[in-house]
Design brief:
Strand content: 15-25%
Radius of gyration: 21 Å
Strand order of the largest sheet: 1-2-9-4-7-10
CATH class of the largest domain: Mainly Beta
CATH topology of the largest domain: Jelly Rolls
Amino acid sequence: MTGKQLNRYAEMVIVCHGDRRYGSEITFEDNVLVSVLAGELKVVQADRTHYCGAGETVLLPRKQPATFLKYPKDGVAYQAVVLKLPTAVVQAYYTQNTPSPALSVAPGVMLFPKSTLLQSLFASLLPYLELEYRLPEKVLAVKVAEVIEVLRSLDPQSDGVLADFAEPGKLNLVEFMEANYMFNISLTKFSYLTGRSLTTFKRDFKKAFQLSPQRWLTQKRLALAHYQLAEKKRKPVELYLEVGFENLAHFSYAFKKQFGYPPTAVVGHGMEHQLAAG
């Protein structure tokens, strides 16, 4: 069973929990801070994977697609506190506070070990889940400033994430899609992240790949899944979320339609199927 505890009057604080593995693909509009209380959080990006265990905290940058997998561990259900940092409030903070010298490359996802400062911070925010009125704007600004000050004190490089307010510019479509095809996000979001309107995205995509976006995405995701099953010996239930499918049944159906045999057959008989297919 999975669920969330949130309050519409204090949207910056959410408590997530689950006693089974579950996940989703998300591109956050605001920076997000997640403190894992129990279980494990796996963050899969285009070029790397991060693991965040109980007691650790992860800062997730805005505008970066990723797959988030939550696991129970050692018989304990997954539980985490999520803080959303409204971009407008963060920008207001940095108009009054100069960020550390600019980094040549933004650090991306940042992991923080167990910290008394972070534990105290999250503990002070949990009562907001009981609010019966909207959190006053000045209080919100104070709490966001406190979050930023704590993160900066623990790692000055956090400015590279928090103070990055750039919107996506027009990117190389082929390079971006080859790096991010496994994320199950909408075409509208893909177009936005590559700096295009949806119409321009579809036009440029067809010109670059000679296929519709959806057909190309499905083929790429299934090819990645086949590789993971045959070469990495992973099980279908372990990877379907990571290759861009919402549920196991849809993944199995699409896989069999593409290759002529179910994904479960690849694990034990992958070589036979590859030889037959060849």
